[in-house]
Specification:
By secondary structure, the protein is α/β, with parallel strands linked by helices. The chain has helices at about 20-25, 45-60, 75-80, 90-95, 100-110, 165-175, 180-190; strands at about 15, 35-40, 65-70, 115, 120-125, 130, 135, 140-145, 160-165, 200-205, 210-215. About 30% of the residues lie in helices and about 20% in strands. The radius of gyration is 18 Å and the shape is globular. The model is unreliable at about 1-10 (pLDDT under 50).
Length: about 220
């Protein structure tokens, strides 16, 4: 039921306060153990900002939390731009180094891992190594990995959140220089709709001040 006499059906979005959404995500990370959370969303959805807000909430409750920006795990420009700076297939398959993300962030935080993760691998602006130092993860550390096209990669994470934009909102909120990314993003996320991998939190994000959770 959603309010007096109203039934909520499967797939029907249910409004949720932004603060409650953040709290629900943190509450879903078991205490006493490390948790890896994916915040998946197009850059226009500002997933890093949302991940940062979630991390701040976790820390306010005494839980160590850190954010890894997927744009700090891009591949060198020589690879990203090999077929042009606006090649849609390259954007979907070559831009981001998911293998390095597994090697440097996810695997070390899993049972048996070393417990140290690399917050940044590559500086996208300078196209050079970020020269970051490894960070030590506490026993109950939360690490939030935020960026586009993270779902469907088979990443070994504990919780996944998708900030979903409609096609019109994606185009409206994407800068003129990056409009070419809209088509591959829409194609990628449309493919996820038909896969077995579903996020734990599927959030309608056209209006970040008025999000809604989609029920399966």
């Amino acid at each position: 039921m959603d309010g007096p006499g109203k039934m909520v059906g499967v797939g029907q979005p249910v409004p949720i306060f932004p603060d409650l959404l953040v709290e629900s995500i943190v509450d879903s990370c078991p205490d006493g153990t490390r948790s890896i959370v994916v915040i998946d969303g197009a850059d226009a959805a500002r997933p890093v900002d949302f991940a940062t807000r979630t991390a701040e909430h976790a820390r306010s409750r005494g839980r160590p939390a850190a954010v890894v920006d997927l744009h700090d795990y891009v591949r060198p420009a020589s690879i990203r731009f090999e077929y042009s700076r606006t090649d849609e297939l390259s954007y979907r398959t070559l831009w981001f180094d998911y293998d390095a993300l597994v090697r440097e962030v996810i695997a070390p935080l899993r049972p048996g891992g070393g417990g140290h993760f690399l917050p940044r691998l590559w500086d996208e602006a300078t196209d050079r190594s970020a020269r970051a130092r490894s960070a030590s993860a506490a026993a109950n550390q939360i690490v939030l990995i935020a960026g586009p096209m993270l779902l469907g990669r088979g990443l070994n994470v504990d919780l996944s959140v998708q900030l979903r934009l409609s096609a019109s909102a994606l185009r409206r909120r994407t800068s003129a220089d990056d409009q070419w990314t809209c088509a591959p993003l829409l194609e990628y996320y449309d493919g996820l709709d038909h896969s077995a991998e579903r996020p734990d939190f599927l959030v309608r994000w056209d209006h970040p001040d008025r999000p809604a959770l989609e029920r399966y």
